[in-house]
Design a protein that fits this description.
Layout lengths: L9 H6 L2 H4 L6 H13 L2 E6 L4 E7 L5 E7 L3 H19 L2
Antiparallel strand pairs: 1-2, 2-3
Helix pairs in contact: 3-4
Length: about 100
């Protein structure tokens, strides 16, 4: 359950953070539509797993990644970190 604002009383909600309500960093079914949107904008998205997770995002027709996320956390946390970095990059380059 992704939760909703209506499920919390006002006092409970005051103590909640957005990350406890939103689940982009813990649920693939939340994060993958964002990844698909990034790809629809003409970027590639690569996830490499193992003991050390690496996620790279780059512009199509260019092998050099724009974003590289290498953190010793779960694969979804690494992907989420890359998505956040990409959104920050995209927002500063698209005027």
């Amino acid at each position: 359950n992704c939760g909703s604002y209506e499920t919390y009383s006002f006092d409970e909600f005051k103590t909640q953070t957005y990350t406890s309500v939103l689940q982009y960093d813990t649920k693939w079914d939340w994060l993958m539509p964002v990844v698909e949107k990034i790809e629809s904008l003409g970027y590639w998205f690569e996830i490499m797993g193992g003991a050390w997770n690496v996620v790279r995002i780059g512009k199509q027709q260019n092998e050099t990644p724009i974003i590289t996320s290498e953190i010793y956390k779960t694969k979804i946390e690494t992907a989420y970190n890359a998505v956040v970095s990409f959104i920050q990059y995209y927002n500063t380059t698209q005027h």
